[in-house]
Queue: 2 jobs
Job 1
Amino acid sequence: MTVFLQSLINGIISGSYYAVLGIGLTVTWGVLKMINVAHGDFYMLGAYLFYTFSRIAGLPVVPSIIMGVLGVFLVGMLLQRGIIAHALGREAFGNSPFIITLAIGIMLENIAQIIWGENNRGVPYFNETVFEFGGLTMAAQRLIVAAIAFATLIAVMILIKKTRFGWAISATAQDRFSATLMGINTNRIYMVTFGLAVALAAVAGCILAPIYGINPWMGGSVQLKSFVVCIVGGLGSVGGSIVAGILLGIVESFSTQFFGSGWQNVIAYSLVLVMFWVRPEGIFGKKH
Amino acid sequence: MNRLVKFFDGSKNKMILSALFFLVLLLIPIVLRISGYENESYVEGVLILCMMWAAMTLSWDLLMGYMGIWSLAQQVFFGIAAYTSSMMNYYLGMSPWLGFLIAPIVAAVVGGLVAIPVLRLKAAPYIIIATMCLGEIVRLVFTNLVDFTRGELGFWQMEAFDDVFGINMNGADKIPYYYLIFIIFSAITLVCSLIAKSHNGLAMKAIRDSQEAAESLGVNSTEIKIKIFIISAYMAGFCGVFYAHYMKILTPTDMFSQSMMTEFIAMDVFGGIATTRGPVFGAFFLTIIMESLQGLDKYKLLIYAAILMITTLLLPNGVMNSSRTLKLSLLGRLTKHGRTESDIDAEAGNG
């Protein structure tokens, strides 16, 4: 029972940041109608910026996280306006935004490699305390991760559902042309949405850096897992992504428990194939 | 003769150009040997890589360029064949030549299996995600089955091909390997252009442009998709076997990770999709550029990314398909945003 509870809690905690990552991709998909294969690399960039501000510049943790996320937000907006915007809406493979984001991913990885080197970088835990109750152990760091992740999720939900800016995003996602007629500057919406989406990846990168360490290739597996979350939750559905993220976390934590640590990703990715087979539109996606 | 002309994009000039290209490739080692050029084996090594990647990119272009299935799992077929051949060699002591018989068939079977989940999906992003996950699953399985595949360690120091007809294949002299890959490359080029010009090729293009319309005209899209997946995987398998016994190093990360697929994408997109000359040009150009930038190893991927981005934004149809775009922009009539290639075609009276 303790093992079960421990796995469940671990699952929910790692699931919470899968949800944060998945939402970023889902929003990009829903609004800009493109898939972003550089999402994992923005996650990596966020972690590196956090490392730079906190370890090299010596700032305290909270300002470094904020600076790191803001930095990625700006880089994301610049890349969207400067490069991706020109390819949006193109359908053929050779000129699609997909190729552009692929190139952006390679570029970010290489830049990180040049600036910060290929070695693993570490950031100390925000808080070293370890709680124990009833046989369950829980590092304070993991609780902080979960708390920030859930706070971010709630903030995103509020932003999308309750603010004028969120309504503008939803309107643009539904129909760009009508949104333009309503006086919404859709180009700006696209730019900010993309920035927000990659900033979410950066949030996950910052809060997870102490646990997993930082290297230029850390985005690869995160990228695919964000895709898993998107597909299982239904591409374009924010609420679905949250549920799917936590579900993925729990599935992973239990499969590590039962099959050993090499196999949890195999199971996570197989989930996507099963999902495509049974319900391609995702758990919460709309049929179309 | 007319049929032959048709294989090479329908023009006599292009056919002469292709023939010339293959003739030059055929003669390069002989010329180098006779002239006694000191870096002979280096040049041959680069050309071997060029031909191998060109063959791989061509096999993938059948799926992506002609049929519009954005499958990102081509490296899986390549890797599976390489692994099959080296495992047969390592565990059963079979000759690497037998790998050419068996491994591509294994790759083709895997191709058929990959086709099944992909067939159910129509939207491009779904196919991208599904095939990316498939590739990653294969990589993890090969990493985790340590007893069987030696895990992350991979296979090292595999046997070279056995000597045949008194030709020494130990790899010290690259010429036998050069001609081996030359044969594979020309065969794959021929098969790809044959398929593209055939009845099936037209059906493939119809599926790419609109699956519903193609089906309404009596194209059996399921059958063609499975067929092309199998053929494409089979061809990739030959390259895989060659790679295994030429490079002699196999690790799951090298063979199955997305970075190799990225190279194929870059080569194909750069050269021009849905043509025979595009992937060949892209593979040769990028491989040679990358080889000559060895000193800038650190920035290699950055240059790759930049090339990919610039081609996508400025020459969306690849270099080989953009002569008209280039001509127009050189004439000062820069292609404005929003105008498609077909508009330019129409303007040039060439549509």
Job 2
Amino acid sequence: MLLYVFRRLLTAIPTLFVIVTLAFFLIRVAPGGPFNQERGLSPEIKANLEAQFGLNDPLWVQYLHYLKNLAHGDFGPSYNLPDFTVGELFAKGLPISVQLGASALVLALLLGSLLGTVAALNQNKAGDYSVIALATAGSTIPTFVIAPIIQLVFGLTWRLLPIGGWGDGAFVNKIGPVLTLALPQIAIVARLMRGSMIESLHSHHIRTARALGLSDWSVVVKHALRGAVLPIVSFTGPAAAALLTGSIIVETIFAIPGVGRYFVDAALNRDYTLVMGTVVVIAIFTIVFNLIVDIMYAVVDPRVRYD
Amino acid sequence: MTEVAAAAPAAIVGRSLWGDAWARLKANRAAMVSLCYLILMAIVCIAGPWFVPHNYTTIYSDYVRTPPSFSAYPKAEMVQGALDDVLKRMRVDLKDWKLEDSRAVVTVTATRPIDERYLRYIDRSDTFDDAKVEAKSNDGLEMTFSAAVRQQYFFFGTDNVGRDLLSRTLMAGRISLSIGLLAGVVAVVIGVLYGSTAGFIGGKVDEVMMRIVDVLYSLPFIFFVIMLVVFFGRNFVLMFLAVGAVLWLDMARIVRGQALSIRRQEYVQAAEALGVGARGILSRHVIPNLLGPVVIYMTLLVPQVIILESFLSFLGLGVQEPMTSWGVLISTGAKNIGTANWLLLFPAFFLVSTLFALNFVGDGLRDALDPKDR
């Protein structure tokens, strides 16, 4: 098992390398540069700035330089937020995004599994239909509609929650963003769970368990759930990577100082190092969570083995 | 089986794949209602802007952030405000005014003789029209004039700068729906061509083509879209192509898989054995069998495209003012929920209901066309 993890982590290095290379040259091919947008920047100052950041070197020199720094864990300075290095920006924003994303993920997994199980146990009855309706709504209504509606209903009309802001991580400030992040995921998890639970409930070992006279609770929780949870596990990998690295919509609407906005802002301002940093961070999260999912497979399903 | 067939040979009328699918679709209530809703929505959005009394770019500076209402504007108390505004501009003082029928009769005074040409200020205002001098004192310091009060209807209210939200929502619908359709078609065309080429040629070519798709898949989706926006600029038509060009990957995979499996089917082998040419097999067997998944995927693709377009517009990367789309309107609405929640609610309702309808139609089509279900 440990050997497997080690091997997987080793194969992640070439993957990361390809992604970094691709992203580096893609963003460089784009017209414009980090110091082109600011008006009134005299040519001399611009030339000085570019020289300071080594932007006048041949592209391959810059590329090798970036790779070398990256291998040492140095993401470089941000061009548009000159007082910060990219590493500092992530150290500041990432904990916030991770907190929100992790809460949303846990909420989605728990509530989604519960709803999906309830629907599967009441197949084609009222409970089932209401879960299906909720899942359809959750996966159809886009986040940028859910978020302002939550603000409008809970923030402005009922005045239960603050409309936005981080508030140094106060609990009430997190409710709106977490709910917005979680709703579409709850829909997906509930749908997956319902499908796999129905299948699991029809399998032979469940019939045997029932025939042996086990209680409903023990049949569902001990036996059916374990077989049904695999699709949820494979969903969790990419979902976790996406949730934990911040959502631009949620962070913009609720005015959360997370990392979700970095990528779009940086790409538009040609803040090369910040773009690269975001790509690397997202890639690392994706790789790590896919690995965790694969390990989880072996934990949940003993038939899966890694030698 | 043979007995039945022998007993009533004429009674068996074969139904075509599409006739069968249509019958199944018709039996699905949710899908049919949604289909009608979509058609209605399309008609309203396409034809609506011509029937709405306001143009979607016209700015009514007297009616900024006016709440939606079925009764006509101006309300009685608003006339006073508008009158004060315009009289200030005329540099005269209000002495007395009253409403007679739908005309306001106003008496004003000034320290200097009043020039009648000042009345054009009245005509310029959004509230009044057709100003006429009724009486004038001999020294010209006092004048009575009348002006028609213009009746305006803002069923959806007006936005931040005083544009009619109804006409803007309908116009936005035109843009969003046509982007959805056009980008959907672009994605389907690229995907079908790419996927079927890979599927038919097979072998090394298939291998290479599918690896390219895998690589594109592994790039973060948003990275891809933003890069396209960065390259193409915020150009409206290019957005169609960019969005379509991003979404063809799934289509290519689906079509390739279908093409591969159809080619190995026994009925295709039978046709080959009977001497049917490649073209015959393609047109008689492969394309009709491909169409089902393509149609299903297309209906599910259109809402994705609309969401993606709205998402980009929400970030300010998509459709630019004064042109508008549902994403642009919702973005403005989200910024003004405190003062003018109708700016969010109406466009959001249009967008979400359309997405729902599209999803129901997509699900209905999948049930109708999926051969496994039979």
